[in-house]
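Blackboard transcription, Thursday session:
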Amino acid sequence: MMKKSNLINDRKLAFRFHFPAFFVLLFITLIPLLYTFRLSLFNYQLSIPGSDKEFIGLANYIELIHDAEFFKSIGITLLYVFVSVFVEIVIGIIIALILNKIPFMRRIFTSAILIPMMIAPLVIGLMFSFFTNPQFGLYSYIVNYFELPLPTVLTDKPAIALVTLMIMDIWEWAPYMALVFLSGLQSIEGEFYEAAEIDGANGRQIFWKVTIPLMKPIIAVSGLLRAMECLKEFDKPYIFTGGGPGNATEVIDLFTYKQAFTQFRFSYASALCVVLFITLIVLGVFYEKFTMKEN
Amino acid sequence: MIINRHHKLKVTLAYLFLIAFILFTLMPYAWMILTSFKKRVDAFAIPPKIFFDATLSNYYDVFITKGMIKNLGNSIIVMLVSVAIVMILGLPSAFAFSRFRTKADTILLNFLLGTKFTPFVVMALPLYLIMSRIGLLDTYFGIIVAHVAFNLPFCIWMMKGFFDAVPKSLDEAARVDGYSWFRSFISIDISLAKSGIAATAVFCAINSWNEFLMALILTGRTTATMPVAVPGLVTPRGTLWGQVAAVSTVITVPVLIFAFLVQKHMVSGLTMGAVK
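(Written on the board underneath:)
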């Protein structure tokens, strides 16, 4: 990854340049994280005075593995992440292939598809609430006008609300996948295609036997990265239905947030945070191993 | 001849498909922007109106009458201050990763990567508890700290790449001329990595501007940023969607303008980690 021979090996000098950033990070990320871990071993709840000093060991973690709501939230999150990212990859590949084929004006199209991923996720949630409002939303109007076999109320049934959230995420991130895959496609050497054409392969064979195998690493890495981001979803379900109907769209970050800020069970929420943190770090190690191998 | 015509047809179809895809994708967004300029009767008209008398009354009502301008100011303050701090702290560190080698590099880089992967709720909960204990909830300090916490690692990662692209021979030449490393960093590397710095700053600014969860937890009545204040307009007794649309437009349009200004770097920043 780094060409070691060119770099200056001077510990004191490096320390001086690194010090400001890492000194601050120590206080604003590392210490808060350690504080969370410590708190997860206590019984701190806002409703019980003095409970922040009551050490209870791993009781929060034990409660966690018996918490059906927690596992339901994990299930919802995994379903949400898996479906959203899978569809984003498929749409991304299709759009990237088409963008790669067109001879001119590619820049205009890539600019236009940058728009969704630049919009604040909170605004995306608001925008879809508005767009699909049963009384005056354009979506409902179109569905009624053309008598399409689609629901007009999207917030009252668990499955429909979850699918709507997936569509929002796909709306936001499928264009991003297209941009990633486009740069991947452009890095494939033309000779692979020439060789395939000389061998008399048709379009479909070239796609499955040349493009996809060569794109596999980039699909895996960007899919993993996107999945890790998607696991942290909060804004869109918060604003769309607040996790409802019931808790049908209560993804894990929203579940944790509610434990902390509507139940005020700070220690229990801390235990959740520790579990989330470890999960993401494990995925991060996978990600790093994978990109290292590619390099 | 036939192959050529076949090819042309294919290309035309590709363009049509792309145009349809983009129109379809941008429809909800365009709809929202249009609504922000509609009077109340037009916004709720059935069938929906595409042509109408444009008005700025939604903007006036929400920003002036309801005081959203205060939240706009908060968003700008938090964004500018946190980005300035991030750049001042981050640039030297990114430069050091690009030029010097120490045994701690791997640990430090992994630490940065780890903070990048940490869910915001995991960072925000302890910050909330610490801030409430020392009485810093609902202060600019609290929310700026939180925004520095997630933007700083990002800035170092992104800037390391831009400093790598500045030829090392230039530093060496400056060193021969008697420049200190710090002076060489300030007067040579920073000015040569200018466009990268601009792109990184824009990136961090957008992250801060769009951020919701931490602001929701750490700000209050006096420091709420725009994303935190908008949900307050959505009420069970009736939502003034025209005003929601107006604020949403003000949140999103500047981002798009800045994103297009640094578009080339924007794509590389966005795809960082996914593409080499």
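Lecturer's comment: The two ends of chain B are 41 Å apart (CA to CA).
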